[in-house]
């Protein structure tokens, strides 16, 4: 180690090269997963049945649709961070590590975009009355 | 040790299987009654129930061990007895919550 400041000696080290911000985001998204997840599970539990009419009408209404959208953002973000840590732990070769992180980012951003598109289509869309497009 | 491994395994399972099922369900809802019924045919089959019960258990287990992490992050619960108690509690709570959820789904 050099003779720089304490923070200068550790900055840029570790498997991911940046730590505290990642750590905090993992916890922020954990908290929102917790709140939104419990809301969604409770909703499914208390809805009278699991038919299309019941589910689509409920999740197309404003508050459930917004919480569903926040849940998608929060869970995909949390999964991206969590699987990223797993990759850092198990994939050591630099090229493979880069490729795995790249694929992870493509899948999680793509998946979240697809989920949000579906929610918007449900909430603003044409098919809740039963006439499929 | 077991709680830590379960946290990672359930997290990986939720990320890969759980998010895939979530997207399938959302797309089926957005797609209309026919798509939704096709999803529900799989979801309510014997293998669908196994996957869904497994996912809810994984969610509650990951949630409970995650809450345990919040306690440990605050610097509490590192005494051997308390640590052991929280570990056992996180596994037990997950099983109880899973059973309660499915009982609620069928009862309510």
Question: Keyphrases for this structure?
Answer:
heterodimer, A: 133 residues, mainly alpha, 3 helical TM bundles of succinate and fumarate reductases, 5 helices, 76% helix, B: 108 residues, 4 helices, 90% helix, 0% strand, elongated
Tell me what you see in this structure.
- The complex is a heterodimer of chains A (133) and B (108).
- Chain A is mostly helical and 133 residues long.
- Chain A has a single domain (15-123), classed as Fumarate reductase/succinate dehydrogenase, transmembrane subunit (3 helical TM bundles of succinate and fumarate reductases), CATH 1.20.1300.10.
- Chain A is built from five helices and no strands.
- Chain A has helices at residues 6-10, 20-46, 52-60, 62-90, 94-124.
- Chain B is mostly helical and 108 residues long.
- Chain B has a single domain (2-107), classed as 3 helical TM bundles of succinate and fumarate reductases (Up-down Bundle).
- Chain B is 90% helix and 0% strand.
- Chain B has helices at 2-31, 33-43, 46-73, 80-107.
- In chain B, helix 1 crosses helix 3 (46-73).
- The termini of chain B are far apart.
- Classes of the chains: A mainly alpha (133), B mainly alpha (108).
- The interface between A and B is large, with 38 and 33 residues.
Described by the principal axes of the CA atoms, the overall outline of chain A is: elongated
Helix content of chain B: over 70%
Q: Mean pLDDT of chain A, rounded to whole units?
A: 88
Measured distance between first and last alpha carbons of chain B: 37 Å
Write the layout of secondary structure elements.
The complex is a heterodimer of chains A (133) and B (108).
Chain A: H1 6-10, H2 20-46, H3 52-60, H4 62-90, H5 94-124
Chain B: H1 2-31, H2 33-43, H3 46-73, H4 80-107
Helix pairs in contact in B: 1-2, 1-3, 3-4
In short:
The complex is a heterodimer of chains A (133) and B (108). Helix content of chain A is 76%, strand content 0%.
